[in-house]
Amino acid sequence: MVQMEVLALILTGLGIIASILYYASVLRNANRTQLMQLETRQASFFMQIYNRMLDKDFMEVWHKVLGYDYSDPEAAMRRYDSEVDSEERVNVDLIAQWYEGLGVLVKEGLLDIHLIAVMFPLTVINGWNALGPMITEMQKTSSSRGSNFEYLYDELMRYLEEHPELRA
Asked: Is the C-alpha dihedral spanning 168, 158, 107, 151 positive or negative?
């Protein structure tokens, strides 16, 4: 009789252990599934950003902005400030705000700088080289203006420094 009680306790213990192992396995699989869903959403999000950059209208505006003369940032700022409704100002705002948004996404950890470094580093570098001097001039009166674009550029340059194999 004592042996039956011991056997019942052992079987109960084994059942509990099996239940715990099964539950741990289910949790691990659920975590893997959530991680895969997150990675899929991040990839989809990145492709939306990338497709926007490849949009013909956006690309035309981007090339126009890179063609504007910013060699004298103070003169560019005067021109920018005086021509509120000009095509140049609208184009500069469009491109600068796009970069500003990318900077926010990188800063908040919603977009990995690695993806930008792999897919379009020169777009960011050329954009900052064109607009950076004017943004720096703007920051003299409004310190936060363009700060996320600057952050994006700085983070990209830091990342490329750490990963020289990605430098074009």
From this structure: negative
pLDDT at 2 over 70: no
**Rounded Cα–Cα distance for residues 136 and 124 (Å):** 16
Mutual angle of helices 73-82 and 121-138, in 10-degree steps? 80
pLDDT at 31: 86
Q: What is the pTM of this model?
A: 0.75
Q: Sorting pLDDT into bands at 50, 70 and 90, what band is 76?
A: confident
Count CB-CB contacts under 10 A for residue 101.
16
Domain extents in the chain: 1-40, 55-166
Which of 88, 158, 156, 159 minimizes the C-alpha distance to 121? 156
Residue 79 predicted with pLDDT over 80: no
43, two tokens: 């990839």
Instruction: Read off the tokens for 147.
Output: 């700060």
- Separation CA 107–CA 89 (nearest Å): 26
- Going by C-alpha positions, the residue among 127, 156, 132 that lies closest to residue 145 is 132
Whether residue 99 contacts residue 149, with contact meaning beta carbons closer than 8 Å, is answered with yes
Instruction: Give the span between the Cα atoms of 154 and 157, in whole angstroms.
Output: 5
